[in-house]
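User: Show me a protein chain along with its predicted structure.
Assistant: Here is one chain, sequence first, then structure tokens.
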Amino acid sequence: FTILLKNTTKMKFSMIAIAATALAAGVEGFSTVAAPRSVMRASPLKMADAATEVDTKAALATAANEARGLAMDSIAAAHSGHMGLPLGCAEVGAVLYGSQMQYNPKDTQWINRDRFILSAGHGSMFIYSWLNLAGFDLSIEELKNFRQHHSQTPGHPEFPNSEHTTPGIECTTGPLGAGVSNAVGFAVSEKMAAAKYNTEDHKIFGHHIFALAGDGCFQEGISAEAAQFAAHEKLDNLIILYDSNEVTLDKMAEYTQSEDIIKRYEAYGFETYEIDGHDLDVVEETIAAAKASDNGKPKFIKCNTIIGKGMEETEGTNAAHGEAGVPYVDKARAAIGLPEEKWHVSEGTRDFFSGVQEKNGKIYDEWQSTYAAWKEANPDMAQELEDAVADKTMPAEDMLAAIPEMGEDAEATRVSGYKIIQEVSKLVPNYISGSADLHGSTRNYIDNGGNFGAGFDKSYAGKNLYFGIREHGMGAILNGIAYHGIFKASGSTFLVFVDYMRPTIRVASLAELNRVSYILTHDSIGVGEDGPTHQPVETVPGLRVIPNLDVYRPADAEETVAAYVSSVTRADGPTALILSRQNLVQNNAMPAAERRAGAMKGGYVAKKETGDLDLIIIATGSEVQHALEAAAELPGARVVSMPCVEAYERQSDDYKESVLPSSVTKRIAIEAAVTPAWYKYASKVVGVDRFGFSAPGDIVMKELGMSAENLSAEIASMN
């Protein structure tokens, strides 16, 4: 259903008028429905309450203006940035940070804090201004250094990583639609944590996820995929705020959109609201109502706003989106009542937010008491949770030793993966997995883990997520789960479809999200009969060029063990697991422990030469079996299996020299993929620099040169 609150018509009006209204409004101004008049004289207590509410509203109005000033000053100083959203959504920010969100600036990792995601990341001065005002450790000096090298205020918000450690940033945002979709992952994680760790006696999880997004976010298809999932799984802890300012970058929004977005989100299953985003009363009451509504529906609040509000020359137009308003900053600041001093924050605003911190501090302290009692009553569960939050897993060496050997029979690495994921789930209690409608093929279902969600056989404690045919949405939701900071999440699809979710993998790599991994099966032309639409040839090399993404393409079951272990023990980035559809021969001549240890290093000697070393064959994945066969008759040939180029490159120079000695220049590489990247290691490459065709997989492989016979012929041609 839709809830319309107050007048939703957009009107331009002075912010001085807003402040004046706030001072004069009284209690009735804080209600969407005016209180009945009474002839009785108000008691002193009621009068005090009324005065407090008037003071609060005035403080919020003042804070909104000062946040506008901080944004204008920082963008003007940088001569770069986006003014539209920070000016247009100032009242929304005031209500969120000044009233409705629970957070503690002194403990930015408090696990039960509300989360705020700025999906429209280009408006980053919005969140930087409010973090400063709310008391986070983000100084005015950092705001003055907006978009400058080594500042904590980059152009788009970045999740704390080796480059930026800005407190209060929950999520790296920039690609439109991604943040609001990440928010669904946050909501999944919160629901899962509550189901897993809350008890009848103690509730330690119970927070909300807020996301602020604009027209661009909702035009991007990823947001639709994530919204469908959120509503279907009844994630009523999710509150989406739509900055509806009728403007996009090139044109007014009506030039490219004409849908009724309220009806669209109602159709998904959201509870919807439409409000005047500049009316502090209505924003306050609507967000409070959304928080209180535990009805199984996520919330969608359409906030009608004026982009660039307060800057007469550009407000309400697409010129307000960027920095076109810089020449008018001084005039705009004066018009909303700010003094000439730049980056001005009044003592009253600082005092007001000290009060907000005190209020939230009491909530925080009460929660700490609850947590202490819960921990005492549930010591094992508490240890599990604290290990999960600290991202503490057993050392990789111990995990490798704990997983049984896989056996000697040929099998597809996706089948090996199914066996391995059962062991990983036992060893890493916070590990969960999901699929884009392909569990039966990708084989990453966790037995006895239960299914996540609402209805049918699902519960919020389930470890298996059914994303539907929504790869892009799945990628964003996985990232959101990882950002939330409790669970390690993996998701699966066919490798050829990974391009649907590539933008989310790129951001996960940039954000150094080690809690997320991707299980990508049916890895080559070996897919066979489905034909070239389903036979990836460029995809694995395309993933390898993403910085900070580990791409594992294991050659057999034991290398697959290493790939999974690496994915859950890696500390600084995500991992893609590239698994075969077809059976692969096991390298049984080499002990399982040695294959696992070698694969953990990314590359290792899979078969040592029996004579003087004069040839190195480098192979990966399903082609290692061909390399081993071709080398069997060549005493001077060494086979190097390189399941993960990125892990190999992180090894010491001495180790790499021991595997690929520089004195041996006669090298050949083989992989069922396009060839260019392998010339870094080899002078000749046997690969597939074309699309495949529909036929049984073994025939496609043979016809396109992926065989020991063809490899031997290519080696012979090098003499």
